[in-house]
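Quick one from the shared queue. A colleague (R.T.) flagged MBL fold metallo-hydrolase as missing a structural entry in our internal table.

Convert sequence to structure tokens.
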Amino acid sequence: MEIQQIGKRGILFTFFEPYKTNVFAIIGEKHTFICDTFLGPESMKSVIKYLKEQKKFLPTNIIIFNSHADYDHIWGNCFFSNKIIIAQENFEHVFRKKAQDELVKYKNYQKGKVSLVKPNLLFHSKLFFPEDQIIFFSSPGHTIESASCFDAQDKILFVGDNVEEPFPYINNLDIETYINTLEKYLSFDCKLIITGHDKVLKDKSLVKSNLDYLYSLKLGDVDIFKFTYSEKKIHRMNLQKILSLVSDEEKKEKKYQKFKRDLTTLSTQLKKENY
């Protein structure tokens, strides 16, 4: 685990096994906020151990925030089962639909014994803690229940998996809403951006490049021949997801016909490049 001081009151915990994932803590005036809880209670024990060493840490006033319902962001909730756990209101539907299946599918990733604990405080559009200058707000994109956190005092924006290197992962067909969310991020006066799985962003260049990708995806005009190997892999996954969600009738449309051709081309290229 790597620990970084972010701004005057933020602490970033970066885990590397089984893959790089960030947990972000903000020590506010009244509450200590922990954004996402990674893969289980053992991970959170190490986070709390470190936080207890901080002079301003308030262990009785911990508030947990889940940026979305993917397993690698919520399995540590069980360590905080008696605390307030915040999420966007669509979380409950998504959690009910997939949480148990993911617990079985990814059981080998558990850090300690995981029991599923869902959020107990849901919000629609936004939730503001004025004493701490912390704002949680709905930001659908990577998933329909995705939400973000803005530390208005330090001007730090936590975006979960909505922004990723090199491309965002698509999980639904509402690309327009995803675009709106990233455009909203561009309007924020923020000094740093914390993502779910990447390094700390010191500018908005990755947000902009993610947006360019989404613009092209929406138009069905993605140039796959300029992609790197990793970009090809992610775009192939996105095409597979999109084509699995559209109807047979929609697949006859020009855009989706191109997606099908691109998917075949990418699969062939990746197979060759893997050797």
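The chain has two domains: 2-218, 220-273.
The first strand starts at residue 2 and ends at 6.
Added to the table.
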